[in-house]
Write a structure and sequence with these properties.
This protein is mainly α and about 475 residues long. It is built from 14 helices and six strands. A hairpin with a 5-residue loop joins β1 and β2.
């Protein structure tokens, strides 16, 4: 139950709500920007118009998702100054420069080339337009790079000292801070998750249109490309996830204990608990379905390797086990389903049934939002598993919040919920409407702005982004 008088809990819920909503959009734009670059590159190389039609089809979705991601991201910076002012003051000397690097790299790239990418197809040369698309894709990567560096440092803080004012400052090497111990694993895992998110969204749209018309060449093309990505990246993601898990075991063992549901230590091999109901009060997993010693084999590559449990961790330093336990299983379960769909698509391709096997298309359609659900579950595992720390091991969440009254936080949380569901709900509805339309033979660009004879446009056309050709 939520205590309405608990300002800290309300502030955590507010940040969790807004950041979860926000991350849905970058998870799409990171992969979709690269997909658009691939489509345009293939069009330039082959001259096949289907690639350009798909480019124009998906660039509309990209523009909308990108815009909603920017708007929802602005809110995050304000919360650091309102609900988490103590954290901002103490961690600002390290977090601030890293966030500034994101602005100087990612935002500048996107600001400089996004307009050319969206509206410059007929205004600049093909090579320059392709370069703009590549720069936008690079910008999304750079944004992920810096944001994940910040988050990873909060998970595995290194290279810092504490000054007389209690602030975290660089101890001399910014490279140690940027490339902290968990950053490479987190970057690889998150980027591959973003590519899978896009692949399954594109695959679901392709499957939807194949179910209506299996002869549609553009639907066939997008579905085929998506299934190749699923077949290659989904198994790779499982390997990357395993490496990330081993890194987490080394640097954040308490989080892994919660993920595995290990309330008790196991001196001669820990079981892998598949399902159950974590009972934190009694320190056990009720109704557990487990495989003996398999957790030790996975985590330490030894069936009899000892594994410590939460009984070795003070109660005040333990995360909410139930949330972490189940969010981890949702993420892993969806990951294996993604790999299963990818493998199934290879079998269908080998049998020549990739475009006419309706059950495969229905499976792909159902899996459309799986990437978004999986990344949310992954972030819940990461962030809730870090509790009760904001900066792992050195700054507690309870010591990071602003001294605000609970009613003020509750009112802002309620306002966020209402505005987000109204504004972004309308945006998502429009995106789904765009996806429901089959990509045409001559797909129009995001905004048709025809040239006037004198090279000018009426004022009304400039305001609306369109002009009549009659």
């Amino acid at each position: 139950m939520i205590d309405p008088s608990d300002a800290l809990l309300l502030a955590r819920i507010q940040f969790a709500f807004t950041v979860s909503f926000h991350f849905l959009f970058p998870a799409i734009t990171i992969g979709l920007a690269s997909y658009l670059a691939v489509l345009e590159g293939l069009w330039l190389r082959t001259g096949r118009e289907d690639y350009m039609n798909l480019f124009r089809y998906w660039i509309k979705v990209f523009a909308l998702v990108f815009g909603m991601g920017v708007v929802s991201g602005i809110v995050m910076s304000y919360q650091f100054g309102t609900n988490w002012a103590v954290f901002s003051d103490r961690a600002g000397p390290i977090i601030g420069p890293l966030m500034a690097y994101e602005v100087l790299t990612a935002f500048f790239l996107d600001a400089g080339f996004l307009g050319v990418m969206l509206f410059g197809m007929k205004r600049v040369g093909k090579g320059l337009h392709f370069a703009a698309t590549l720069m936008v894709a690079l910008g999304t990567f750079m944004s992920a790079f810096w944001i994940l560096s910040v988050n990873s440092w909060m998970q595995t803080p290194v290279g810092f000292a504490v000054n007389a004012n209690g602030q975290f400052i660089s101890a001399g090497s910014w490279l140690a801070i940027i490339f902290n111990p968990s950053f490479p694993y987190r970057l690889a895992h998150t980027l591959s998750a973003a590519y899978l998110t896009t692949a399954f969204m594109v695959g679901a749209v392709g499957a939807w249109h194949l179910l209506k018309d299996r002869a549609n060449p553009r639907a066939r093309l997008m579905f085929s490309m998506a299934m190749w990505m699923a077949a290659i990246v989904a198994p790779l993601q499982i390997v990357l996830g395993d490496a990330h898990g081993l890194n987490t075991l080394e640097h954040q063992p308490t989080k892994v204990m919660a993920m595995e549901g290990h309330f008790e230590s196991h001196p001669e091999g820990a079981p892998l608990i598949l399902f159950g109901i974590p009972n934190s009060e009694k320190g056990r997993v009720d109704y557990a379905v487990e495989i003996p010693k398999l957790s030790s084999l996975i985590l330490k590559h030894d069936l009899n390797a000892p594994m410590q449990g939460l009984d070795t961790v003070p109660k005040a330093d333990q995360p909410p086990v139930g949330i972490v336990f189940w969010s981890f299983r949702v993420m892993v379960g969806l990951g294996f389903l993604m790999a299963g769909l990818g493998i199934l698509s290879l079998w269908a391709r080998a049998k020549g049934r990739l475009y006419d096997w309706k059950w495969l298309h229905r499976f792909a359609l159902v899996m459309g939002p799986s990437g978004l659900i999986a990344v949310l579950a992954g972030w819940v595992t990461t962030e809730v598993g870090r509790q009760p720390w904001t900066i792992y091991g050195v700054l507690r969440t309870a010591d990071s919040a602003s001294p605000l009254a609970a009613p003020a936080v509750a009112m802002s949380l309620l306002a966020f919920i209402l505005v987000y569901f109204a504004v972004f709900g309308a945006g998502v509805f429009y995106i789904l409407k765009l996806m429901s339309k089959s990509p045409g033979i001559h797909e129009p660009p995001p905004s048709q702005v025809p040239q006037m004879a004198a090279g000018t446009l009426p004022v009304t056309a400039l305001r609306t982004g369109t002009a009549s050709t009659k």
